[in-house]
Amino acid sequence: MADSKPYRPNVGIALFNAAGQVLIGRRFRDDGPEIILPGLEWQMPQGGIDADENPRDAVMRELWEETGVKSADYLGETDWLSYEFPPFPGPSTHRLAKFRGQRQKWFALRFTGSDDEIDPLTPRNGQPAEFDQWRWERLDRVAELVVPFRRAVYRTVAREFAKFAQ
Protein backbone atom coordinates (compact mmCIF):
# COMPACT_ATOMS: atom_id res chain seq x y z
CA MET A 1 0.00 0.00 0.00
CA ALA A 2 1.39 3.42 -1.01
CA ASP A 3 0.47 5.06 2.32
CA SER A 4 2.87 2.81 4.23
CA LYS A 5 5.83 3.79 2.04
CA PRO A 6 8.15 6.57 3.22
CA TYR A 7 8.71 9.88 1.46
CA ARG A 8 12.02 10.33 -0.32
CA PRO A 9 14.11 13.17 1.21
CA ASN A 10 14.61 15.76 -1.51
CA VAL A 11 15.69 19.34 -2.17
CA GLY A 12 14.12 21.76 -4.64
CA ILE A 13 15.89 24.74 -6.16
CA ALA A 14 14.46 28.13 -7.09
CA LEU A 15 17.48 29.73 -8.80
CA PHE A 16 16.76 33.41 -9.34
CA ASN A 17 18.51 35.56 -11.93
CA ALA A 18 19.07 39.31 -11.51
CA ALA A 19 15.67 40.01 -13.13
CA GLY A 20 13.88 37.88 -10.51
CA GLN A 21 13.04 34.98 -12.84
CA VAL A 22 13.73 31.34 -11.95
CA LEU A 23 15.55 28.70 -13.94
CA ILE A 24 13.38 25.87 -15.24
CA GLY A 25 14.36 22.82 -17.27
CA ARG A 26 12.39 20.68 -19.67
CA ARG A 27 12.47 17.02 -18.63
CA PHE A 28 12.92 14.84 -21.65
CA ARG A 29 12.23 11.45 -20.10
CA ASP A 30 10.07 9.83 -17.47
CA ASP A 31 11.73 8.38 -14.39
CA GLY A 32 9.35 5.81 -12.98
CA PRO A 33 6.77 7.56 -10.82
CA GLU A 34 8.31 10.93 -11.75
CA ILE A 35 6.30 11.08 -14.94
CA ILE A 36 6.00 13.89 -17.43
CA LEU A 37 2.91 14.76 -19.41
CA PRO A 38 2.71 16.40 -22.85
CA GLY A 39 2.97 20.16 -22.43
CA LEU A 40 3.89 19.82 -18.74
CA GLU A 41 7.55 18.85 -18.98
CA TRP A 42 9.00 21.93 -17.25
CA GLN A 43 10.17 22.06 -13.64
CA MET A 44 12.73 23.65 -11.36
CA PRO A 45 15.76 21.52 -10.50
CA GLN A 46 15.34 19.08 -7.61
CA GLY A 47 16.93 15.92 -6.35
CA GLY A 48 17.43 13.43 -3.58
CA ILE A 49 19.34 14.02 -0.40
CA ASP A 50 22.04 11.38 0.08
CA ALA A 51 22.28 9.47 3.36
CA ASP A 52 23.90 11.67 6.05
CA GLU A 53 23.95 14.67 3.65
CA ASN A 54 22.97 18.11 4.89
CA PRO A 55 20.15 19.66 2.78
CA ARG A 56 22.25 22.81 2.14
CA ASP A 57 25.04 20.64 0.75
CA ALA A 58 22.53 18.59 -1.27
CA VAL A 59 21.04 21.68 -2.90
CA MET A 60 24.40 22.83 -4.25
CA ARG A 61 25.31 19.31 -5.42
CA GLU A 62 21.95 18.85 -7.16
CA LEU A 63 22.12 22.30 -8.76
CA TRP A 64 25.54 21.47 -10.21
CA GLU A 65 24.57 17.92 -11.27
CA GLU A 66 21.42 19.05 -13.10
CA THR A 67 22.53 22.42 -14.52
CA GLY A 68 26.30 22.83 -14.21
CA VAL A 69 25.76 25.93 -12.06
CA LYS A 70 28.17 26.61 -9.21
CA SER A 71 27.72 30.38 -9.00
CA ALA A 72 24.82 30.81 -6.58
CA ASP A 73 24.24 32.47 -3.22
CA TYR A 74 21.80 31.33 -0.54
CA LEU A 75 18.69 33.51 -0.09
CA GLY A 76 16.31 31.39 1.99
CA GLU A 77 14.49 28.09 2.41
CA THR A 78 11.05 26.66 3.10
CA ASP A 79 9.87 24.26 5.75
CA TRP A 80 9.48 20.67 4.59
CA LEU A 81 6.82 20.20 1.87
CA SER A 82 5.63 16.98 0.29
CA TYR A 83 3.81 15.54 -2.69
CA GLU A 84 2.63 12.06 -3.57
CA PHE A 85 3.65 10.19 -6.69
CA PRO A 86 0.80 9.16 -8.99
CA PRO A 87 0.12 5.39 -9.25
CA PHE A 88 3.15 3.67 -10.80
CA PRO A 89 2.42 0.52 -12.82
CA GLY A 90 6.10 -0.17 -13.49
CA PRO A 91 8.49 -2.60 -11.81
CA SER A 92 8.70 -2.61 -8.02
CA THR A 93 12.50 -2.69 -8.42
CA HIS A 94 12.60 0.89 -9.78
CA ARG A 95 14.70 3.10 -7.47
CA LEU A 96 11.69 5.37 -6.71
CA ALA A 97 9.03 2.64 -6.41
CA LYS A 98 9.76 2.17 -2.70
CA PHE A 99 8.63 5.75 -1.98
CA ARG A 100 5.11 7.19 -1.76
CA GLY A 101 6.35 10.61 -2.88
CA GLN A 102 8.90 13.26 -2.08
CA ARG A 103 9.45 15.26 1.10
CA GLN A 104 11.22 18.42 0.01
CA LYS A 105 12.99 21.41 1.44
CA TRP A 106 13.07 24.19 -1.17
CA PHE A 107 15.93 26.66 -1.39
CA ALA A 108 15.98 30.10 -2.97
CA LEU A 109 19.37 30.89 -4.51
CA ARG A 110 20.59 33.95 -6.42
CA PHE A 111 22.48 33.10 -9.63
CA THR A 112 25.72 35.07 -9.68
CA GLY A 113 27.22 33.63 -12.87
CA SER A 114 26.51 34.14 -16.55
CA ASP A 115 24.05 32.16 -18.66
CA ASP A 116 26.85 30.31 -20.47
CA GLU A 117 27.55 28.48 -17.18
CA ILE A 118 24.17 26.72 -17.51
CA ASP A 119 24.55 23.34 -19.20
CA PRO A 120 21.90 20.74 -18.38
CA LEU A 121 22.99 18.22 -21.02
CA THR A 122 26.39 17.22 -19.64
CA PRO A 123 26.15 14.23 -17.23
CA ARG A 124 27.84 14.88 -13.86
CA ASN A 125 28.65 12.56 -10.92
CA GLY A 126 27.53 9.61 -13.04
CA GLN A 127 23.98 11.00 -13.20
CA PRO A 128 22.24 11.13 -16.59
CA ALA A 129 20.97 14.46 -17.90
CA GLU A 130 17.37 15.20 -16.92
CA PHE A 131 16.73 18.33 -18.96
CA ASP A 132 17.18 18.91 -22.69
CA GLN A 133 16.35 22.64 -22.56
CA TRP A 134 16.31 25.42 -20.00
CA ARG A 135 14.96 28.94 -19.72
CA TRP A 136 14.21 31.72 -17.26
CA GLU A 137 10.54 32.02 -16.23
CA ARG A 138 8.43 34.07 -13.86
CA LEU A 139 8.07 32.24 -10.55
CA ASP A 140 4.31 32.84 -10.44
CA ARG A 141 3.89 31.02 -13.78
CA VAL A 142 5.89 27.87 -13.07
CA ALA A 143 3.11 25.93 -11.27
CA GLU A 144 1.11 25.87 -14.51
CA LEU A 145 4.04 24.31 -16.40
CA VAL A 146 4.58 21.29 -14.10
CA VAL A 147 2.73 18.00 -13.79
CA PRO A 148 -0.42 18.30 -11.63
CA PHE A 149 0.91 16.26 -8.69
CA ARG A 150 3.60 18.92 -8.04
CA ARG A 151 1.42 22.04 -8.39
CA ALA A 152 0.48 22.57 -4.74
CA VAL A 153 4.16 22.50 -3.71
CA TYR A 154 5.08 24.89 -6.53
CA ARG A 155 2.34 27.32 -5.48
CA THR A 156 3.62 27.28 -1.90
CA VAL A 157 7.18 27.87 -3.12
CA ALA A 158 5.95 30.78 -5.27
CA ARG A 159 4.21 32.39 -2.27
CA GLU A 160 7.14 31.91 0.08
CA PHE A 161 9.80 33.07 -2.39
CA ALA A 162 7.81 35.91 -4.05
CA LYS A 163 10.03 38.49 -2.32
CA PHE A 164 13.06 37.18 -4.26
CA ALA A 165 11.26 37.56 -7.59
CA GLN A 166 11.00 41.36 -7.30
From TrEMBL:
<feature type="short sequence motif" description="Nudix box">
    <location>
        <begin position="47"/>
        <end position="68"/>
    </location>
</feature>
<comment type="similarity">
    <text>Belongs to the Nudix hydrolase family. RppH subfamily.</text>
</comment>
<dbReference type="GO" id="GO:0008893">
    <property type="term" value="F:guanosine-3',5'-bis(diphosphate) 3'-diphosphatase activity"/>
</dbReference>
<keyword id="KW-0378">Hydrolase</keyword>
<dbReference type="GO" id="GO:0034432">
    <property type="term" value="F:bis(5'-adenosyl)-pentaphosphatase activity"/>
</dbReference>
<dbReference type="InterPro" id="IPR015797">
    <property type="entry name" value="NUDIX_hydrolase-like_dom_sf"/>
</dbReference>
<feature type="domain" description="Nudix hydrolase">
    <location>
        <begin position="6"/>
        <end position="159"/>
    </location>
</feature>
<dbReference type="Pfam" id="PF00293">
    <property type="entry name" value="NUDIX"/>
</dbReference>
<dbReference type="InterPro" id="IPR022927">
    <property type="entry name" value="RppH"/>
</dbReference>
<dbReference type="InterPro" id="IPR000086">
    <property type="entry name" value="NUDIX_hydrolase_dom"/>
</dbReference>
<protein>
    <recommendedName>
        <fullName>RNA pyrophosphohydrolase</fullName>
        <ecNumber>3.6.1.-</ecNumber>
    </recommendedName>
</protein>
<dbReference type="InterPro" id="IPR020084">
    <property type="entry name" value="NUDIX_hydrolase_CS"/>
</dbReference>
<dbReference type="GO" id="GO:0006753">
    <property type="term" value="P:nucleoside phosphate metabolic process"/>
</dbReference>
<dbReference type="GO" id="GO:0019693">
    <property type="term" value="P:ribose phosphate metabolic process"/>
</dbReference>
<dbReference type="InterPro" id="IPR020476">
    <property type="entry name" value="Nudix_hydrolase"/>
</dbReference>
<comment type="function">
    <text>Accelerates the degradation of transcripts by removing pyrophosphate from the 5'-end of triphosphorylated RNA, leading to a more labile monophosphorylated state that can stimulate subsequent ribonuclease cleavage.</text>
</comment>
